[in-house]
Specification:
heterodimer; A: alpha+beta; 2 domains; 4 helices; 8 strands; elongated; B: mainly alpha; 3-stranded mixed β-sheet; about 5% strand
Chain lengths: ~190, ~325
Amino acid sequence: MSLFGDGRCRPWGWPVTGAHRTGWTILAVLGGTALVLRAADALPGLVSAVPRGMHVCTTLAEAEARTGLHLDGLHTALGDGYATVDRIATVAKPAPAVSVTLRPANAAHGEVTYFRTTGGEIPSLLRSPLPAFHVIEVELGSGRTASLRAATTDDDTVCQDLEWSEGRGRAALRTHGRTVDLLRLARRLVEGGP
Amino acid sequence: MGRLAAESILHGLVAASAVMAILAAGGIRDAKARLRFWLLAIAFPVGFTPLIAALAPARLDDAFRDQWSLLSGSHFAFLRWRDTKVSTVGVSILAATGLLLYLRDLLPFLRDLVRSRKRGPPLTAVPDALARSVATAAAALRTPEPKLHFLDSPHPILTCRGWRRPHIVTSTGLVDRLSADELDAALAHEVAHARRHDPAFGWVLMLVRGFFIFNPSVQLCARAAVHEIECRADEDAAAANGGPEPVLRSLRKLAGGSHAEPTDHGPRLLHGFRLAAVDARCRSLLDASRAGPPPRWALPATALGLGVILFFTVA
């Protein structure tokens, strides 16, 4: 059955001329093309749980190229305890930002995620908001202070965020491990700085 | 360069799919209009893609890709197969398909070119009936009478050649095979090609295909354009002869008919393709005789809409 088969638009019965038919066809095809392209673009995000706007990088160099941030000193600053980079993700908007998840080399340390942005705030696409029940200011050395916030997650573990200013941008660490490890890592990063 | 080639392929596929859907769903049967639509589908990957790459480099920024684009190739970058991006594998397969499609047409084209350059059958005096037929067709199509070369050959030869001054080549074999009105129709078809300088246009298309050898959509759209050029000449011939019937009969007879043996001892499969193409031309001629051209704004509207869509489609 054709929508315009008998010279009338089926649902409403309006008369349809050849020009009408061509016009509606062009509109439908171009609109359909745009929708198909947009749906295809959403597929990778659905398959890999990578939301639109986030890029998963394979190397720190690729993340540096995408964001313009210097990350090559990250391994040195964190030491041998965090030898393996597990996942690197970047976003471009509202300001370039990166998150690097570091897997601990031994069970003594918890998994840590390092965040850095050139903007004023770390995007929620990279770091999910943490409803803090406890926020304190801590000294990191070199006259720099950081805010430490802690919250319980759905699985009743304690998640801690440590965030400080890094030039015009911000840097942060998130871990489910011990506070002392978090502070030690932050001091190394501030002093040795990636 | 690789990204630009990938974007050319992506844009070509989108443009060709959209044009194909518009032609089919919009009921556009007029060969001249269809030809313009196919040329538009070629123009996007050939001209528009390099143009926007040069004029709008900001399209490649992550911010544009993530916020504005309809589709971005970078969003598929994490899909890998043995340390190779899946998108790279896909583009390579499409490029190889483009190359095969080009060779599929280039090799017979070169074979015919070499044969025509060799000493062919001897030229002979043009029969008065043929000369009159060409003159009548030229008058009906309001074009200068093209030169006619008549070969003494048992094969039914009929072609329009010549880059600057197109001329018609035919043979005694053709005259033996076709009736008088079919011969008039067949010659009118070639006069129509000469009138529009289609041989030169065919060379330009082959050249564009050669430059975009990696792009399968350019190859397919160029083939579709050539088909429409033939249909357009069929329509002109039908108009010059007062109806499509003689054109249809001459087409079917020269193609060998649906139950006939292949005429040039070529592979049977190719003969099948040729018959299918002739059937499509016959259907197109009958459809065109019933349908009018689309409104004049249809092509610019499609170009504008596709231009906007493709601007926001980044490889």
